[in-house]
């Protein structure tokens, strides 16, 4: 699907699936990626780290994002930057959520 140059509602681009985490990479370049995610309630990504900063923008629902052991509630319309090399985890605790993950692979 070529979406370049076309206004698109981000929430409508990816759908929830029962008991699943769904992802869709919409930009993939050598220096970074933009990926959409939909997390059903109770789903998440276990603690991990990445060598680059990453920005998460919540476009529907609410996520619990843990950075270096400290939980943060991030709601629709909010964003958080996950610093490089800092352990982080993402969880749909109270409701499902959709997010845009932007990772820039550069210092």
TrEMBL record:
<dbReference type="InterPro" id="IPR014710">
    <property type="entry name" value="RmlC-like_jellyroll"/>
</dbReference>
<protein>
    <recommendedName>
        <fullName>Cupin type-2 domain-containing protein</fullName>
    </recommendedName>
</protein>
<feature type="domain" description="Cupin type-2">
    <location>
        <begin position="37"/>
        <end position="92"/>
    </location>
</feature>
<dbReference type="Pfam" id="PF07883">
    <property type="entry name" value="Cupin_2"/>
</dbReference>
<dbReference type="InterPro" id="IPR011051">
    <property type="entry name" value="RmlC_Cupin_sf"/>
</dbReference>
<dbReference type="InterPro" id="IPR013096">
    <property type="entry name" value="Cupin_2"/>
</dbReference>
């Amino acid at each position: 699907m070529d979406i370049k140059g076309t206004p698109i509602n981000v929430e409508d681009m990816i759908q929830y699936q029962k008991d699943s985490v769904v992802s869709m990479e919409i930009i993939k370049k050598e220096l970074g990626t933009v990926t959409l995610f939909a997390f059903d309630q109770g789903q998440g990504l276990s603690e991990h780290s990445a060598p680059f900063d990453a920005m998460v923008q919540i476009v529907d629902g609410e996520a619990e994002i843990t950075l270096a052991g400290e939980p943060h509630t991030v709601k629709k319309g909010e964003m958080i930057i996950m610093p490089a090399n800092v352990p982080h985890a993402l969880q749909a605790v109270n409701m499902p959520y959709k997010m845009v993950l932007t990772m820039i692979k550069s210092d």
